[in-house]
Design a protein that fits this description.
With 292 residues, this protein is an alpha+beta fold. The protein has helices at residues 63-77, 92-99, 120-128, 148-154, 175-187, 237-252, 268-276; strands at 3-8, 17-26, 31-40, 47-54, 82-88, 103-114, 134-140, 191-199, 204-213, 219-228, 256-264, 280-291.
Length: 292
Amino acid sequence: MSFRITPLTDPADGAHSRRLAWLASDADSIPVGAAFLRLFDGGQEHLAELTVQVHPVERRKGVGSRLLDTAVAAARDNSRRCVVAQAEAGSPGDLFLSAGGFRKVLTLRYARLPLAGVDVASLAEIIERPHSGYRLASWQGAVPDDLAQTFADSRRAMDDMPMEDTDHGTTAWDVDRVRAAAKAVEQRGDHLHTVVAIDTSNGSVAGFTELVVPGNGTGDAQHYGTGVLPEHRGHGLGRWMKAESIRHAHGHYPDLGGLLTDTADSNTHMRHISDSLGYLPTHTTLQYQLDL
């Protein structure tokens, strides 16, 4: 098959990453596939994230391999030491990445909480149970000014999350980055809702959980992250915050179908929290890594 690879200008650059893109087209200039390579900074300058898409009828003709080779060459040119990509277990992408020299480094378990079946009374019991030395707070959109610095500081709660063999690095967070992330959600028309646990002894954020709801309030919302600082673990804060997030979604978005979450297979603590709150397994995704 004769086809060409054309680099594209991608407008999806962010404050802390940029994305390269390529289009594969056949001899008649009909698109048959595309590849995207996100290049990170802020503690992840070694990392690139790859997405390759080929039209089903055009697979097994070398299109994906050409796109892969092009993207990997670009990663090397940009001084990256590894490329990561995800595929659902047992999918064509799973086989493609294995054949392309990638190794499996992480298993992600996805789960969904159907909001129609949520037991609001049980949630209320969890939320209203006292947690000595802590209180809950929440906001919509960007973090309030009085909590901005301590919220940015609390992001290190994700630094030691189980990532199995992934060369993930550590994301560097500051107030500007926190606000930029919230602005990105707002600009695409979605709603960001954040719940935090606050240490009442000094007013600092001890942990957080984030939920992104589609702009029209329908379909499924996505949990973006839940973390508790190491010095505050063991007090049930993760389950407490997530229960409040569920209650907010259930009460404020009557047309929302469910809440989606993904957790590393090895993160048994967070998986137990989701199970206890009624999340049901949906599928498994594998993360692959190519060391350059």
